[in-house]
Amino acid sequence: MSQVSTSPSMAALGVSAKPERRDIGLRRRYAAERRFRLFGMAAIAFGLLFLFLLLFSVVSKGYTAFQQSMITIPVEFSEQVIDKNNERATNPQKLVSANYPVVARNALAKVLGVDEKDRAGLKAVNGMISDSVRTQFRDMVVANPAIIGTTQTVTFLAHGDLDSAFKGQIDLSVAENNRKISDKQVGWMNTLVESGALSKHFNTGLFVNGASSRPEAAGLGVAVVGSLYMMLIVLVLSLPIGVAASIYLEEFAPKNRFTDLIEVNINNLAAVPSIVYGLLGLAVFVNFAGFPRSAALVGGLVLTLMTLPTIIIATRAALKAVPPSIRSAALGLGASKMQTVFHHVLPLAMPGILTGTIIGLAHALGETAPLLLIGMVAFVADIPGTPLEPSTALPVQIYMWANEAERAFVERTSGAIMVLLIFLILMNVGAILLRRRFERRW
Amino acid sequence: MSISLLLLVVAVIGAVGYFIGSWRANALAGGKLSNLHSRPGYYGSFVALWTILPAVVVVFVWVVASPVYISSTVRAGFPEEVKAEPQATQNLNYNMISAIARGFKVLTAEEREALFKDGATARDVLASKGVPVAAEPAPYMLKSADDLNRMTNTSSTLLSVFAIAVAAIGAFFSYRSIAPKFRARNRVEGMMLVGLIAASSIAILTTVGIVASMFTEAVHFFNMVPAWEFFFGTVWDPRFAAAGATASAGQFGLIPLLAGTLYIGFVAMLVAVPVGLFAAIYMSEYASRHVRSVAKPLLEVLAGIPTIVYGFFALVTVGPFLRDISAQLNGLVTGNYTNFIQAQSVLTAGFVMGIMLIPYVSSLSDDIITAVPRALRDGSLGLGATRSETIKRVILPAALPGIVGALLMTASRAVGETMIVVLAAGVAARMQLNPFEPMTTVTVKIVNQLTGDLEFTSPQTLVAFALGITLFFITLCLNIYALYIVRKYREQYE
Q1: Are residues A191 and A248 in the same domain?
Q2: Min CA distance, A121 vs chain B (Å)?
Q3: Does residue A93 form part of some domain?
Q4: Which positions in chain B touch A33 (Cβ < 8 Å)?
């Protein structure tokens, strides 16, 4: 523009030069424009940076949790230690209460060449063995008492501190007194590694074991089963109820006070803090109806109430997306209102409903606060057989481990978070695939 | 017969009813279905519904009512001196009796007879069968337990007979009413509609349940602690009651908790609002389709991550990082390497919560900004405004009510957030303005007061419900106000 107005031909025609002020501020305005745009990019970058940091922090701390250090050595199930006076025939309790950690300690001491009189040495050796050998060896011996007096090659868990040291998580440059593992133990560890006795195995215990105060023996088994029960209960209850409620509100409800009330209610319930549902569950299901505390059933019911609004909102959107022509055609062919909805509208809305349900379930799977209140913060060592038995849930287990003081539990916690996130990713990917595969554009 | 078996039997009768009903309708049609008012399946469903529904109602009512009746009868049979004891003791006794009754079921008849002759060994005998009993039972307890078992058995038999009879009667009469002109479809659809209405009333029931349950418990609490001491008290010191010590009155001041909640929420909004708003503006106004299709879902991943994960992130990563960096900064400036930011602090919790809230702000505002009509943008750009001027002067004012509504909803989420603050904010209830020190929130205290063993009689436990109802009303008001703003100031385009 400015070029046109200042061209000689224009000047010759007597057109006045353009006013000077027209360009004033343009540079400033463009700078503001660039700045504004930059802020937008910075905001997105900030969000993504912290997403990345969060995932990185969890994965970098947690990936080692999927491996566990195990010691494989020949163990002599010495009669001296287990049953000195040979009274196992008369007193079956003897085999249950025998001092199995000593069996493991002696075996390891023998491999490391520690003298049986060296008390300090034996104590250090004992510090390399997980206390879980007590149950492991007990179960072996009780199952087959014939192994007493023989020597078997056994694989058992190393102590959590040894595990951390082996994975390189303990800073060995710190003064010996200030770390959990002594120089002597580190030396032994290296010997064991060289001889192949100490090695990392895939950590099946993480997925199978129940609660334990020893990090190396603690697992998610109870939590996974408890979460599974709860998800089943949520699915079985909230899908039919949610779909029924949405069908009524979307297809049948007359516009009146009552339906208005329901509508406002559902919108509000979707925004009620989850912890309030926990209080509701505690007061109604546990205190009033007398359901057992810590049970997956109560957790499932609470999560159902919490998930219902989400599912109802998603289902209504899916029903609304089915074009009215479908309804008109069905009604025109003589179908009743109910037949129209159940034979034509609902099947067409199903992909959207299922997507919403999966997302609601994923949300319920990660919910912690209401479960804390109904007593799922429990030390449960045995996998629950029914939803009425005490259990924990994945996020609650994460919370409990996050509160543990021991260093090795940080690794466990991050590992558990990874397991939880993997479940959530699977569910969300499932929802996306479902939507891609069955979504229709009208 | 156990309840599940009974329900199964009823369901089987219902299924049989369905087939007989449809078969009967087919037979009546005489090969020409147009003789019937409805399709045969509807006649079958009609019979099945009338078989199953009344029986299920009977089972439900019985299951709720019979334990109450049995317990009152058993208690009526207590000796007079036991009846004179306080209600709590009687409840304990009754619990023991139920335990003994459970134990009796695993004993053989002879063992039980032996117990009645010589009650002294009852506890050991029961313990050997894996049924622990709290104390050595008094003689009347054995008799009461026996009564209890007998009555439970009778009740269960009666229920089975009664429920099956009701199912059969329902099946019979509904079967009798089948006729070609019988409007089975309308009847079945009517019942379905009732079911649909019932399902949608659950939303109302939930709200009623929330308000009623918290309200009753909160009223108990306010009977022990005056309401004004709770709402206006500035000291939070509940003093967990030691066993037996009744005189340990704590102080339950809401104000420090509320201050912490609002402070942490404020810090979170300071992070989430600018970042979320700018992200939404960039994505809806500047970003190419390609960038948008990648960045938007990625940002929304932040909303899908469970809050416990954020809590852990704050606890092990952000908190220690802020603490160490503050020590370094302090050392560089003053030479004194002590940290001035605590690992658990308002800043840690607020910052991480802010990150969690980014996607809420951004996706809500994104929708609202995208809903502003194209014509407004084009008009502004056509008049020579730059994009950012269009956004600032045209789009944001047009979208303002929606955005304010979105921010209020986000704020209500910040107030109700639990796991991040439980792990990262600390438990010390105090009022101060330093964001680098720990403070605590309403939600943290609800969790603290209700984890562990509970008695529903002490103010230490019941205060959680008073806190809960406060929280419920704060979030409710925020949400209703948000809706109100959106409705009142919404620009109507076209």
Answers
A1: no
A2: 35
A3: yes
A4: 386-389
Asked whether residue A154 falls in the same domain as residue A183, the answer is yes
C-beta of residue A390 within 8 angstroms of C-beta of residue A361: no
- Residue A75 maps to a domain: yes
Query: What is the predicted pLDDT for the residue at B249?
Result: 62
Mean predicted confidence (pLDDT) in A157-168 = 85
Closest CA to B461 of B472, B450, B475, B447: B450
**Which ipTM score applies to this complex?**
0.88
Do A250 and A289 have their domain in common?
A: yes
Instruction: Give which of A22, A37, A50, A311 to mutate to test B binding, by max B Cβ within 10 Å.
Output: A50
In this complex, the residue of A35, A248, A305 whose CB is nearest that of residue B206 is: A305
Q: Is residue A417 part of a domain?
A: yes
Question: Are A373 and A268 in the same domain?
Answer: yes
Would you give the DSSP letter of residue A76? E
Q: Indicate yes or no: CB of B309 within 8 angstroms of CB of A417.
A: yes
Domains of chain B: 3-182 (no CATH), 236-489 (1.10.3720.10)
Interface with chain A: mutation pick from B91, B183, B188, B196, highest number of A CBs within 10 Å = B196
Helices (H), A251-368: 257-271, 274-281, 296-321, 324-332, 337-339, 346-365
Q: Place B228 in a pLDDT band, splitting at 50, 70 and 90.
A: confident
CA dist., res. B103 & res. B97, Å (int): 10
b/e sequence A223-258, b meaning 16+ C-beta within 10 Å: bbbbbbbbbebbbebbbebbbbbbbbbbbbbeeeee
Domain that holds residue A362: 221-438
Note whether A196 and A238 are same-domain residues: no
What is the pLDDT confidence band of residue B243, given thresholds at 50, 70 and 90?
very low
- Binned at pLDDT 50, 70 and 90, residue B247 comes out as very low
A89 and A164 share one domain: yes
pTM, two decimal places: 0.86
Out of A48, A363, A398, closest to residue B312 by CB: A398
> Long-range contact list for A86-92, CB < 8 A, 24+ apart?
A88/A145, A88/A148
Q: Which is more confidently placed, A193 or B82?
A: A193
Query: Which chain B residues contact residue A22 at CB under 8 A?
Result: none
Is A192 domain-assigned? yes
Per-residue confidence (pLDDT) for residue B494, from 0 to 100? 53
Instruction: Assign A237 to helix, strand or coil.
Output: helix
Residue A43: closest CA among chain B residues belongs to which residue? B275
pLDDT at B391 over 90: yes
Domain count, chain A: 2
Report pLDDT digits (tens) over B315-330. 999 999 999 999 999 8
Task: Give the count of Cβ contacts less than 8 A between chain A and B.
Answer: 252
- In this structure, the answer to whether residues A234 and A272 fall within a common structural domain is yes
Q: What is the separation, in whole angstroms, between the first and last Cα of chain A?
A: 48
Based on the fold, state whether residues A116 and A226 are members of the same structural domain: no
Look up the CATH number of the domain holding residue A355: 1.10.3720.10
Q: Is B482 exposed, middle or buried (0-12, 13-18, 19+ CB in 10 A)?
A: buried
For residue range A67-90, list pLDDT tens digits in order.
888 888 888 888 777 777 777 777
Res B162 pLDDT > 80:
yes
| Interfacial B residues in 221-260 facing A (CB < 8 Å) | none
Q: Is the per-residue pLDDT at A5 higher than 50?
A: no
pLDDT band (50, 70, 90) for residue B75: confident
